[in-house]
Structure formats: structure tokens, C-alpha cells
Amino acid sequence: MEHLWYEIGSCAGGAQFELELRGSAARVCLMDADNYQAYLDGDEYVMYGGFWESSPLTLEIPHDEYWYLVIDSYPGRIRYSIDGPY
């Protein structure tokens, strides 16, 4: 499955993640390590996020964990930053 991914690392729940997309709309997902592996394997997975057509967008880290940012259906460039918790 073609996608962009970034290893965000350990984040505390409640931290907010800001993302700016350049180019076109995309499906943006936050996943923990187990769910990212399930995504790669084509198995069922849980993700936080959704399809975004405008930016910047802000996602909240739901709980303490090691996180990955996954972006698919995105032909443009990406810039992101993590700030938080707010």
C-alpha cells in the first residue's frame, strides 16, 4: 500500500498535533505501532483522523503511546509540527 508515513514517537495523551498539507486533499491517520503494523499487513486497524480537504488541521493525541502519522492519497508535499498539550 503506497502511503507517506512519519514516526512521531512517544506522545502524551491530550497533546495536539498540527499538520499542514500542500497540494491536495488526503486521508490523515494517527496510529499506534500495533495498528500501523495491521495497516501494513492489510488487517483491521484503528486510526484517529480522517479525510481532510483543507489545512492546517489539528489532531489530538488520544492517549499516551508511540505514534505514527500515515498519509495516503496525497500527491503533494507535507509539513507538520507537534505542539502540545495545549
UniProtKB/TrEMBL annotation:
Domain DUF1883: from-to ranges: 18-73
Pfam family, one: DUF1883
Top-level taxonomic group: Bacteria
Matches recorded under InterPro entries: DUF1883 (IPR015073), DUF1883-like_sf (IPR036488)
Protein's UniProt name: DUF1883 domain-containing protein
